[in-house]
Amino acid sequence: MTYKKKPSWLRMPERGSEEAAKVRSILRKYSLDTVCRQAMCPNLGHCFQRGTATFLILGNRCTRSCRYCAIEHSEGFLDKPDANEPERLAEAAAEMELRYVIITSVTRDDLEDGGAGHFANTVKAVREKISGARIEVLTPDFRGNSDALKVIADAGPDVFNHNLETVERLFPDVRPEASYGMSLEVLELYGKLAPSTPRKSGLMLGLGETEIEIRNALQDLRGKGVTMLTLGQYLQPSRKHWPVDRYVTPDEFDAWKDEALAMGFVSAASAPLVRSSFHSDIYSGLT
Ligand code: SF4
């Protein structure tokens, strides 16, 4: 399988600034991981330079194997959640002087609550450590477990994010262990549990979806009360991952942004290098 040649607009931002080095050393100091590194995010250098990062909790191996994801998949036994991780993360966020803290995780189908309790403990630890900080959680689907979602809602993050990632038709091939309907249900259910908390979701484009399928997915998200959206270009992590079908132009992303805002999304980050947490502090309008 050959890689499709990347167009000029996918130029990777800078990597080696002083600020980025500071972020890396703080992450090392507190033995913390980021989805930025594990998922090979093209914006790592840019975001680290801004002094921001998206923390990855519950380990860096996932019980699932989505075909587009660079995060390591685990067949076997996974470590129990590290009880000290919430504290360490709160310390690191304070040392990074973060006003907007983003917490995500791999999917832990091996845990009864899917890791929801650990998420909640992490939100609480950050709240206690950094007064006035805004917290966004980007969570798995917890297999639609409403008790797990309630545990997170009770911890009270400021933004609840759960990605659709792709359109309905591609789920069986690209996200075989997940379901389109379940992800929509999770977003709807969270809205019932925490009606005043903004909900966010995102898709990657360029996996083979059609224009109509993208539009349907956006309408489905709006239909569940989702108000914040991210759209970005899928980039193939390795030859064994799902191939890029096409590179969507910046103009198309702009057109989707306009269409999403016309559909009633309050914020729509839509551009080739946009990722779930890209400039979340700005797009959330909360800082
Ligand atoms: S569930 Fe998330 S972390 Fe796991 S393989 Fe899929 S996208 Fe990657």
Beta strands, count:
10
Structural class based on helices, strands and sheet pairing: alpha/beta
* Biggest beta-sheet profile: 8 strands, mixed
Main-sheet strand order equals 1-2-5-6-7-8-9-10
Overall body shape: globular
The radius of gyration is 18 Å
Please bin the fraction of helical residues: 25-40%
**Approximate strand percentage:** 5-15%
SSE layout and pairings?
Layout: H1 18-29, E1 33-34, H2 35-38, H3 44-49, E2 54-57, E3 61-62, E4 72-73, H4 85-95, E5 100-105, H5 116-129, E6 134-138, H6 146-155, E7 159-161, H7 171-174, H8 180-193, E8 199-205, H9 211-223, E9 228-233, H10 250-263, E10 267-270, H11 280-283
Parallel strand pairs: 2-5, 3-4, 5-6, 6-7, 7-8, 8-9, 9-10
Antiparallel strand pairs: 1-2
Helix pairs in contact: 4-5, 5-6, 6-8
Condensed summary:
With 287 residues, this protein is of the alpha/beta class. It contains eleven helices and ten strands. It has helices spanning 18-29, 35-38, 44-49, 85-95, 116-129, 146-155, 171-174, 180-193, 211-223, 250-263, 280-283; strands spanning 33-34, 54-57, 61-62, 72-73, 100-105, 134-138, 159-161, 199-205, 228-233, 267-270.
Walkthrough of the structure:
The structure is a single chain. This protein has 287 residues and is α/β, with parallel strands linked by helices. It is 37% helix and 14% strand. The protein is built from 11 helices and 10 strands. It has helices at residues 18-29, 35-38, 44-49, 85-95, 116-129, 146-155, 171-174, 180-193, 211-223, 250-263, 280-283, and strands spanning 33-34, 54-57, 61-62, 72-73, 100-105, 134-138, 159-161, 199-205, 228-233, 267-270. The chain has an 8-stranded mixed sheet. The longest helix is centred in the middle third of the chain and has 14 residues, at 116-129. The model has no long low-confidence stretch (mean pLDDT 92). Bound molecules: iron/sulfur cluster. Iron/sulfur cluster binds next to loops. Iron/sulfur cluster (SF4) is lined by residues 62, 64-66, 69, 71, 106-107, 140.
